[in-house]
Design goal:
The chain is an all-alpha fold and about 80 residues long. It has four helices and no strands.
Length: about 80
């Protein structure tokens, strides 16, 4: 995905998602096949004893969804500041 200035932006994909669109977003950002990213992420998750799953959850919270300006984490922080 590209922003208004033409630079690449990492966002979670809405089109090719299986769970949250993290792998599809990473694949789109780096120009890779989404299946390759998913397989690598699964292998890393198994080898590291689940750290890849934790990394996926963190990425889900930190990477904004396609079409959104802010991530889930930014939304939570801004709501806490407003109260």
């Amino acid at each position: 995905m590209r922003d208004g200035n033409g630079s690449k932006v990492l966002v979670r994909s809405r089109d090719d998602r299986m769970l949250a669109g993290v792998c599809a977003g990473v694949a789109g950002y780096f120009g890779l096949d989404v299946t390759v990213v998913r397989v690598i992420w699964a292998i890393v998750s198994v080898i590291t004893g689940g750290a890849g799953i934790l990394a996926y959850l963190v990425a889900w919270v930190l990477i904004p969804d396609d079409g959104q300006q802010s991530s889930i984490a930014e939304d939570i922080v801004s709501k806490k500041r407003a109260t």
